[in-house]
Amino acid sequence: MPNTKKLIRVPSMCAKFGDCSPSTIWRRVNDGSIPRPTKIGGMTVWDEAEVDERIAAKFAARDARAA
Question: How far apart are the first and last CA of the chain?
């Protein structure tokens, strides 16, 4: 079965988080705000669905506190 995960690299992560710098991405990885990436063939990649789920969870937690 082929892998259907969409993998994204640092520039796409920066765009997803409002055109932040790569340093910001690594800071967020280190503080646990975003998932840790994996290395595939020397490339650092994230599973886009996993990142999107983490973002959605952050918004859901914010909305639950506001309610």
Answer: 43
Quote the CA–CA distance of 5 and 22 in Å, as a whole number.
22
Q: Is 46 strand, coil or helix?
A: strand
Domain edges within the chain: 7-66
Give bridge partners of residue 57 from the DSSP assignment.
none
Adjacent-strand bridge partners of 8: 46
Q: Which two tokens stand for residue 51?
A: 């990142």
Token pair for 65: 């506190």
Q: What angle do CA 15, 29, 63 make, to 5 degrees?
A: 75
Q: Tell me, what DSSP letter sits at residue 19?
A: S
pLDDT tens digits in sequence order for the chain, 67 residues long: 666 899 999 999 999 999 999 999 999 999 999 999 999 999 999 999 999 999 999 999 999 998 7
